[in-house]
Design a protein that fits this description.
344 residues, alpha/beta, Rossmann fold, 7-stranded parallel beta sheet, 6-stranded parallel beta sheet, elongated
Length: 344
């Protein structure tokens, strides 16, 4: 099968990470290519793709209305003559011509516009939350295919002894209005004021909220408890998740939450908002803890409770690890993609 994945930009993020996983697995048995339309791409991430995957960089300026980029995209698609064109942006059908009968669209987030989905072969939602969010707007059939993770690459936690404080990690872009880092900083400040002063949070990621979040930590007198580690590649993340005692993902909204599945696969207890994709991953409390969406007091209380009864949290985490490794594998995701591709 000849498959072409097409995306506007290929910077670091959950969608791009997931796409790398898909392409690597699909390329084992198929002819797979990747087209990146815009001139925004991460060379290091592209270099993780297998050598048999062809990568085409159109290098369009974002929001450019010059027709050359559209012409080149369609020329490439006709030259490659794929069986499947798998797109990863809702706007791509607007500029791809004559191929709607082979266009599949993965919906990677909540509140994605569905204007150009009429006539597509199908859409693939990464969670029930995403499907429910678009079901009245999408103009083609929608199938849920949860994201998969390469669990075999993630180092599992072995030592669950709390010997030097309580270490929390969040892996996400620093966009507090979406990912909720400010909630976690405020929760740490609340706990510090109550005498729990040895909680440390590492934020792995970068984004426009970094200055604001650092200022907030200073203002609340917890800058010595909050560390900003910047962007890290997946190999670093997969080998260092085991160093933490808890993964906390307090997102205000999240279509899936790939990092939550990765944290669970590493054997970490997790604490997420009671909403959207991450809440689905933990089976609404069966495989992880949750707090009321946006409630800083509840977030602080749940962190305190997890730390106070850490052995119970560990037992749940070990059950969750096996569940996630069985149900959120890349193999399983790709098989569901094949099933969708072959459906009528």
């Amino acid at each position: 099968m000849k498959i072409v994945h097409c995306i506007f930009s290929f910077d670091t993020g959950g969608a791009e990470t997931m796409l790398c996983n898909i392409i690597e697995k699909q390329s084992e048995k198929n002819d797979v290519s990747l087209i990146v339309v815009n001139n925004i791409y991460n060379e290091a991430l592209l270099n993780t793709l297998p050598p048999n995957v062809r990568v085409f960089l159109i290098k369009r300026r974002p929001k450019s209305k010059m027709p050359w980029s559209v012409f080149k995209l369609n020329w490439l698609l006709r030259k490659l003559h794929p069986d499947i064109v798998h797109i990863h942006s809702s706007l791509l059908p607007k500029i791809i011509f004559g191929m709607k009968d082979r266009l599949w669209f993965t919906i990677h987030a909540l509140n994605v516009p569905m204007t150009y989905t009429h006539g597509l072969k199908g859409a693939l939602a990464i969670s029930d939350a995403v499907r429910d969010n678009v079901k009245d707007k999408c103009k083609c059939p929608v199938t849920v295919v949860p994201n998969g993770i390469p669990a075999e690459r993630i180092t599992e936690k072995q030592d669950y002894i709390l010997s030097d404080g309580f270490r929390i990690v969040q892996v996400a872009g620093l966009r507090h209005n979406e990912k909720g880092q400010d909630l976690l900083i405020r929760a740490v400040a609340l706990l510090k004021n109550k005498g729990q002063s040895d909680i440390v949070v590492d934020f792995i990621g970068a984004g426009q909220s970094e200055t604001m979040l650092k200022s907030l930590a200073d203002e609340l007198n917890v800058s010595d408890r909050i560390r900003f580690l910047g962007l890290k590649d997946r190999d670093y993340i997969y080998s260092h998740l085991k160093d933490y005692d808890l993964m906390c993902h307090p997102a205000r909204f999240e279509g899936f939450g790939l990092v939550v599945a990765e944290g669970i696969a590493a054997g970490l207890p997790v604490l997420v908002s009671a909403a959207d994709g991450p809440f689905e991953i933990i089976e609404r409390g069966k495989y992880g803890s949750y707090f009321e969406l946006g409630n800083i007091n509840d977030l602080a209380e749940k962190i305190s409770r997890l730390r106070a009864d850490y052995p119970t949290a560990v037992k749940q985490a070990l059950r969750a690890k096996e569940y996630v490794r069985q149900n959120y594998s890349v193999d399983r995701m790709v098989e569901k993609y094949y099933k969708a591709y072959k459906s009528e």
